[in-house]
């Protein structure tokens, strides 16, 4: 499968279908202007650097289930999967 | 119940129904363009860091009743509860 | 009565009716796009911090009569009183 | 007469009628989108502070006749006089 | 004649009529969305200060013929002359 | 063939046709508001400098297959090829 | 001919007609929302200064053929020639 390395503080995530929601049973509303959705982190970006040249760490890690805003980021379809590249700052939270 | 860990300076709050308003009897107007609402803080974000690398403290704490602007943040429904993820800077005040 | 502690550089003020205007007889125009109004400061926010970690002082104090822009801030009704939470930087001046 | 102490870098000015224009005979156009007007400085704000904590000086002083943009600032009527609270940075120039 | 002292980095300029264009024969297009015009610098502002407190020098000087954008700045009519107060950064170039 | 040297942090890329997509079989959706596309990096810009005067390195290199947003950058046609000049920060990721 | 000295980081360029395009045969599309065009650099601005007071160097030089965005900058007609004053940062690349 093709590999996508996101640039900078971006992450690559895979949208989760309704039947893939977490065991806790999160149901995401389908009507709000800004609909959140669950997704799984596939890969992290090349990262950014702070003012002292140190690489800024990502808070999320590969495999995390995250809540994202429906209209953030850019959709990419890879090998039939709906993927999304978005900035880590557009991830609302981690579901566990 | 599923757990949601907000990222960065975000907090997770639970909207309070009218019959859950504080003993002091705050009635929130339903007509203004930007309607404030009462909510209870459920969990705090992973936090941010200031320029010296020190974690920025949250002013609110879990269990606080807070006033929020109706249109701020992103709604999430978890186990039948209306939750909201919003930046702490969008919390107007703490009700006691 | 319920107590509201504004967050950060916000202040809580109580709008003053026309018959509560200052002795000096300030009459506020009712037609301008941005109508100023008189209000009394009820409580100060938790404050912010400058770059050296020192708390930023408020210029206004509880009890001050202030001029505010009509459309700034967020209205809150507490125990029948029209209150308003707004940033101190949106206060135009102090009336004495 | 009621006293208004502007906050921060704001100043309080009194609009000058056409028959109060400066001896030099400045006539201000009445058609432009952004109409300048003459006004007299009534009082200076509480001032701001620079990064070293030193108070930033005002360039205008009480009594100065100044040119202001018609739509800047906020109108206040005090004891029958048309006053205006605006940021010093919105004053275009001093007339002498 | 009334004197106008522009504030900060602003300059006061006098629009030049078509028959006052420079000897080189610059003809300014009358159709573009943002029409440049020739003007002569009448007076310089009180200036600004850089981070070390040193006054920032003006690049233009009194008497310079300059190209300005038609819609920048604010028109002022003084003793029958069309004057304009604008920021030096809105001057496109000096004609010689 | 004419050579184009992008300025600053810009890069010059060549859009890839559908039959030029990577072996992994990435199919890009044609309906989204912001359609990503695959492109190949042709040349890097002259670069920028950080606060210490050091040249900022590019993360992508000539020959990289990258994902770009359809509406970012500026199209240029050179010798019959569809090229695009865009900021490196508008490149979403590298495909391998 | 009249001389125009651009201010700051601006440059003065002369638009090139289609029959003046570079030998490499760059054909610029005429339909895109933001149409790039070829131009030749006529003169450089007075320059800006960085935080240490050192003059910032221009990357382009007089005589360079450059690609510019059609809607950037301000048109000026001098002695029958279509000239344009624009910021160097709006130049996309150098053609050689």
TrEMBL record, chains A, B, C, D, E, F, G:
Entry protein name? Co-chaperonin GroES
A Pfam family recorded for this sequence: Cpn10
Q: Which top-level group of life is the source organism from?
A: Bacteria
NCBIfam families from the xrefs? PRK00364.2-2, PRK00364.2-4
Similarity remark? Belongs to the GroES chaperonin family.
Role:
Together with the chaperonin GroEL, plays an essential role in assisting protein folding. The GroEL-GroES system forms a nano-cage that allows encapsulation of the non-native substrate proteins and provides a physical environment optimized to promote and accelerate protein folding. GroES binds to the apical surface of the GroEL ring, thereby capping the opening of the GroEL channel.
Source species, please? Haloferula helveola
Q: Which Gene3D superfamilies does UniProt cross-reference here?
A: GroES chaperonin
* Lineage, broadest ranks: Bacteria, Pseudomonadati, Verrucomicrobiota, Verrucomicrobiia, Verrucomicrobiales
Provide the alphabetized UniProt keywords.
Chaperone, Cytoplasm
Compartments in which it is found: Cytoplasm
Q: Does the record bear Transmembrane in its keywords?
A: no
Q: How does it assemble?
A: Heptamer of 7 subunits arranged in a ring. Interacts with the chaperonin GroEL.
**Would I find Chaperone among this entry's keywords?**
yes
Q: Which SUPFAM superfamilies match?
A: GroES-like
């Amino acid at each position: 499968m093709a590999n996508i390395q996101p640039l900078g503080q971006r992450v690559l995530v895979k949208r989760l279908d309704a039947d893939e929601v977490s065991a806790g049973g999160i149901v995401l509303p389908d009507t709000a202007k800004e609909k959140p959705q669950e997704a799984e982190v596939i890969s992290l970006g090349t990262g950014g650097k702070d003012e002292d040249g140190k690489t800024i760490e990502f808070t999320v890690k590969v495999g995390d289930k995250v809540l994202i805003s429906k209209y953030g980021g850019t959709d990419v379809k890879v090998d039939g999967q709906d993927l999304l590249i978005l900035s880590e700052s557009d991830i609302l939270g981690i579901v566990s």
